[in-house]
Specification:
This protein has two domains: about 1-65, SH3 type barrels, CATH 2.30.30.100; about 80-180, SH3 type barrels (Roll), CATH 2.30.30. It has three helices and ten strands; from the N terminus they run ββαβββββαβββα. About 25% of the residues are buried. Strands 4-3-2-1-5-9-8-7-6-10 form a ten-stranded antiparallel beta sheet. The chain is globular and about 45 Å long. About 20% of the residues lie in helices and about 50% in strands. Strand 6 (about 80-90) and strand 7 (about 95-100) form a beta hairpin. By secondary structure, the protein is of the alpha+beta class. The longest helix is centred in the C-terminal third of the chain and has 26 residues, at about 155-180. The N and C termini lie far apart (about 50 Å).
Length: about 180
């Protein structure tokens, strides 16, 4: 079964479809060094351009995060967890998302204990695409812990303030560029 896919790399976002693995997506990505994406469209972060690239294999180690709608796991394997909002800086992306951890452990500690692709839920990825602020909301994101620059506990208020501040900065930079041309 193929599902939609979005990968976040250092210079573009990668859109297409992947074949859903038989195991959990996070387990498959942590086990395999590459991921084949079908009907690839690359969207540059710097330029207002897109490029179709057919089917491509991407090194998972080069992806800051991966977004793909996946079916919920087996209900009988679920355990009670506590959710904690984290703020993750990874390359050009800032990600706010919930980390699920065992009661008493904490999301930050759980994130640091995981290696490879770490699952988070109720995520917002914040980044700039050719000078414009983008905020992508997604119910599920796998974050590459090996490429994370910083991670900390966050609040919903902090998220709102960061989006406002970044939007104002992007608008200000765009206005300055417009004034310089005029």
């Amino acid at each position: 079964m193929r599902v939609d896919f979005c990968g976040y790399s250092g210079d573009c976002t990668i859109h297409g479809q992947i074949d859903l693995p038989a195991s959990r997506l996070s387990d498959a990505l942590n086990r395999e060094p590459q991921l084949v994406v079908h009907d690839v469209v690359l969207r540059s972060l710097e330029q207002p351009s897109e490029m179709s690239a057919g089917d491509q294999a991407f090194d998972i180690a080069d992806l800051f995060a991966v977004e793909a709608p996946v079916p919920a796991g087996d209900e009988q394997r679920r355990i009670r967890t506590v959710r904690e909002l984290l703020r993750v800086e990874a390359g050009p992306y800032v990600i706010y998302g919930e980390m699920h951890s065992l009661p008493g452990i904490g999301g930050l500690r759980t994130f640091h204990a995981r290696r490879g692709m770490v699952p988070m839920t109720q995520c917002q990825a914040i980044f700039e695409r050719h000078g414009r602020l983008e905020v992508v909301a997604t119910p599920f994101l796998l974050v590459n812990s090996r490429l994370v620059d910083h991670v900390d506990v966050a609040t919903p208020e902090q998220y709102g303030e960061e989006v406002e501040t970044r939007a104002a900065a992007a608008l200000g930079a765009k206005q300055q560029a417009s004034d310089a041309v005029a």
